[in-house]
Amino acid sequence: MSYKIALNNLIIQVDPCDHWSTEKATTTEVVLARMGLVPMFVGLAFAEHKDNVAEAVVQMYQMGGWSQDPSGNFTPEGVKQYPGDPDQYPFVAIRPMDPEQEMASNVKVIYMYEHDWVAFQFKDDTFKHLRMD
């Protein structure tokens, strides 16, 4: 069941693909705990580095960089797919609340998945992803 949370200068859509059941504990408290510090990095990046949000988040995180695994892909809805593995559905989609920040950014939406994966969908519908645990 999809719903939205306003957090700082972000809109966080919980269960954007309507995949997760209530058994997966998609309450607001659980979702916020699962997201950890990622919303803080994303909010700062949209506020201070609109033109390159994704790189700003990676620089602020400072614990690695982009995944170099070319074998997987993403659907336009943000579903992460790898050959031989079950599809991974995002548990949240993050966008800026401010329309000016959204227009100035090269990022369309940021998805978060189980196992600490975060994917950035750019306005040209390409993706980059990394682990942020």
Question: How would you sum up this structure, described in words?
Answer:
- This protein is an alpha+beta fold and 133 residues long.
- It has one domain (3-131).
- The chain has helices at 28-35, 38-48, 53-61, 99-104; strands spanning 3-7, 10-14, 73-74, 80-81, 92-96, 107-112, 117-122, 127-131.
- It has a 6-stranded antiparallel sheet. A two-stranded antiparallel ribbon has the order 3-4.
- β7 (117-122) and β8 form a beta hairpin.
- α2 (38-48) crosses α3.
- The radius of gyration is 14 Å and the shape is globular.
**Main pleated sheet:** 6 strands, antiparallel
Number of helices: 4
Major β-sheet strand ordering:
1-2-5-6-7-8
How many discrete structural domains? 1
Oligomer: single chain
Structural class: alpha+beta
- Principal-axes shape call: globular
Calculate the terminal CA-CA distance, rounded to whole Å.
25 Å
Strand content: 25-35%
Series of secondary-structure elements, N-terminal to C-terminal: EEHHHEEEHEEE
Taking pLDDT < 50 over at least 5 consecutive residues as the criterion, the unreliable ranges are: none
Question: What portion of residues is helical?
Answer: 25-40%
Overall residue-averaged pLDDT value: 87
Q: In total, how many beta strands?
A: 8
Rg, alpha carbons: 14 Å
State the main characteristics.
single chain, 133 residues, alpha+beta, 6-stranded antiparallel beta sheet, two-stranded antiparallel sheet, 8 strands, 26% helix
